[in-house]
Design goal:
The complex is a heterodimer of chains A (about 350) and B (about 270). Chain A is mainly alpha-helical. Helices cover about 70% and strands about 5% of the residues of chain A. In chain B, about 40% of the residues lie in helices and about 25% in strands. Classes of the chains: A mainly alpha (about 350), B alpha/beta (about 270). The structure holds adenosine-5'-triphosphate and magnesium ion.
């Protein structure tokens, strides 16, 4: 176990100098990733890295409502869709291709507006949580999320079956973020900031209120926590993450989005990330997002020939791994991280006690 | 002056009248005992006072000169009414320190969005609060366990933490639902000592439900007795102990609890 401690020890030492140092260190490590990927593998992997960053944002956001606050939601992908379509439509030029709606806003204005709209939608998706729990809440949020996708699929102004095309890329001055590599720096920064802020929430009265509601709603209300307000707040905060991820997805090269990006399969994939990561554990969710995204990418062309017909087995594989995970690893990777932390804490306390007695004798 | 007053407080579950027209006053800075056989409605009474259950029509509850009848639990908590639960209801996965920090929640000064916009202010205020809460933990003897999850504490430590979490709110009044359940007699005496010290230190008014009558008799200024959801007696410990109605309520039915029988006979 000794070598496993090197990384946390190092991070701890950095954090003692300055709170932000570990974060800057991580940022510095992530900067050369596109060049490493392009040199060692190929350009396409940068696109995958970008998608991973978006899914990290989604998973970390979902973790706020599901992990911190304990509220079941299967509507998160619907929020992602709202963020994406809103930002796309706001930024597209009026009278665009195929009758798509367009307002011609600058991209940097369209993104925050889309985040706002999604936050409001999150409030609505959260409303059932005031009355419902568990499976009923899952059904209600699933219905809301899926109806968003269907609405997009049947509305020509929002792309319907052809999708929205030529969504403009963001730019600073004359520099346009229209390549995989340049866009990587946008989404990577957003993902890291998203992780950072999710810890800020967790380690504040807001995060403690969420966790209290998860652990025991009645005790939480008796401790003075307005349960309805904080449940809705959790939904709104997680919607902000989903909205940002969606908006960044819309403007990502090649600037194209389709309602197929927001199906129940995507939702299951997202849930798989959070469950594999360990519900409630931020870093677990991040690792889950990375592992599942790569697995998703590697298995999407897997085809099984049955009676001369090709069958796409990816949904089967993912559904099955979800069931197996819940059965055999219910606490996910986060459970290991927690156990590892607990051991370290225990060892440290025993050492302190030992050195204490040594001094006394 | 009465800090808490109920008038005609009633609650029925379907056909069962769990609390029936209970009128009761609790004076400031006193220790008020609430006793009664199993299922007589003591916990239900606490749940009504703290807004966990909604009272039936015609009930009236006043706390600190404010009508709190039918108000939500977090509102009543904000007025300064705190409690413990018979089954503790600790936040098992949260650390001991976080448990008492949640207890402090009503006094949080920053907005719920502050972690996004004003992280430094959140850290500054949390640091101050954490030091206060650490002092509280030191006082109840849990400081060295501050970082471990509440679920990993021993039974006695858990009872102390439940008490600490309720005190962290800096309440005016504290309702204790069987704080000593499951403890040995010696530990209960310790616990009651701690409670009395806390009462003086934080200037509290206390209502305590306790099965072990010896404990109630020794610490309470006034005792109210519930039976079948009705108040059947009230007065000083001496008065209640000798009230035939009380003896009837306790002895008139089969009892499992040896302690009660023993206490009634002394
Ligand atoms: N939520 C509820 N739904 C239905 N019945 C309830 C509910 N809560 C309490 N009761 C009933 O109300 C009656 C009073 O229960 P309560 O828990 O208040 O008694 P108690 O005096 O606290 O008993 P104990 O000494 O065992 O703790 C019991 O008959 C109980 O079954
Ligand atoms: Mg009870």
């Amino acid at each position: 176990m000794g070598f496993l401690s090197i990384v946390p020890d190092f991070i701890e030492r950095l954090g003692k100098h300055h709170r932000l140092l570990p974060w800057l260190f991580a940022y510095a490590l992530l900067l050369p990733v596109p060049f490493v990927l392009a040199t060692l593998f190929n350009e396409y992997l940068i696109d995958l890295a970008n998608r991973i960053c978006l899914f990290i944002l989604l998973a970390v956001g979902l973790n706020i409502v599901k992990g911190f606050c304990g509220q079941v939601t299967v509507g998160h992908i619907g929020l992602y869709a709202i963020g994406a379509v809103t930002s796309a439509v706001l930024a597209l030029e009026p009278g665009g291709f195929g009758g798509a709606l367009g307002f011609g806003w600058p991209v940097w204005l369209a993104i925050p507006m889309a985040v706002l709209v999604t936050a409001f939608a999150g409030l609505i998706i959260g409303l059932p949580s005031v009355r419902l729990e568990g499976a009923y809440l899952a059904l209600a949020t699933l219905g809301l999320g899926e109806s968003v996708r269907i609405f997009i699929a049947v509305t020509p102004a929002l792309g319907s079956s052809t999708g929205l095309m030529m969504i403009p890329a963001p730019s600073i001055g004359s520099f346009v973020f229209d390549s995989f590599t340049s866009y990587y720096y946008l989404v990577m920064t957003a993902a890291l900031a998203g992780i950072y802020f999710s810890f800020s929430i967790l380690h504040s009265a807001t995060g403690r209120a969420f966790q209290a509601i998860r652990e025991d709603t009645i005790a939480a209300s008796v401790n003075g926590i307005n349960v309805v307000k904080y449940k809705l707040l959790a939904f709104v905060l997680s919607a902000i993450y989903a909205g940002l991820a969606g908006a960044l997805f819309a403007h990502m090269p090649p600037g194209y989005l389709h309602h197929n990006n927001f199906t129940v399969i995507e939702m299951v994939t997202l849930l798989l990330m959070v469950v594999l990561g360990g519900i409630g554990n931020v870093w677990g969710g991040v690792i889950g997002a990375i592992v599942v995204s790569i697995a998703y990418d590697q298995t999407k062309d897997l085809i099984f020939i049955f009676m001369d017909r090709p069958i796409v087995i990816q949904p089967l594989v993912f559904g099955l791994s979800m069931v197996l995970l819940v059965l055999f690893m219910p606490r996910g990777i986060g459970g290991w991280i927690e156990g590892f932390r607990r051991n370290r804490r225990f060892i440290r306390r025993s050492e302190e006690r030992l050195s204490g007695t040594a001094r006394n004798s | 002056m009465a800090l808490l007053e109920t008038r005609n407080l009633s609650k029925s579950f379907g056909g069962l009248q769990a609390i029936h027209e209970v009128s009761l006053k609790v004076e400031s800075n006193k220790v008020h005992g609430l006793i009664g056989p199993n299922g007589s409605g003591k916990s239900t009474f606490f749940n009504l006072l703290t807004g966990v259950y909604q009272p039936d029509k015609g009930s009236y509850i006043e706390f600190d000169n404010v009508d709190v009848t039918g108000k939500p639990a977090h509102y009543i908590a904000g007025k300064g009414l705190s409690r413990t639960f018979q089954l503790l209801r600790l936040y098992g996965e949260l650390s001991v320190l976080d448990n008492v920090l949640v207890g402090f929640h009503p006094h949080t000064k920053y907005s719920p969005f502050a972690p996004f916009f004003n992280g430094s202010e959140v850290r500054r205020q949390d640091q101050i609060v954490k030091e206060q809460m650490f002092e509280l933990l030191e006082f109840i003897g849990l400081a060295e366990h501050a970082e471990i999850p509440a679920a990993e504490l021993s039974g006695g430590q858990r009872r102390l933490l439940a008490l600490g979490r309720a005190i962290a709110m800096r309440p005016k009044m504290l309702l204790l639902d069987e704080p000593g359940a499951g403890l040995s007699p010696a530990n209960i005496d310790n616990l009651m000592d701690t409670i009395m010290t806390l009462k003086d230190r934080y200037n509290l008014t206390i209502v305590v439900v306790e099965h072990i009558l010896k404990v109630v008799m020794a610490t309470c200024d006034t005792i109210s007795v519930l039976d079948h959801g009705q108040k059947i007696s009230e007065g000083t410990p001496e008065f209640v102990k000798n009230d035939p109605a009380v003896v009837e309520a306790y002895l008139g039915r089969e009892m499992e609890d040896e302690d009660i029988r023993a206490a009634m006979n002394t």
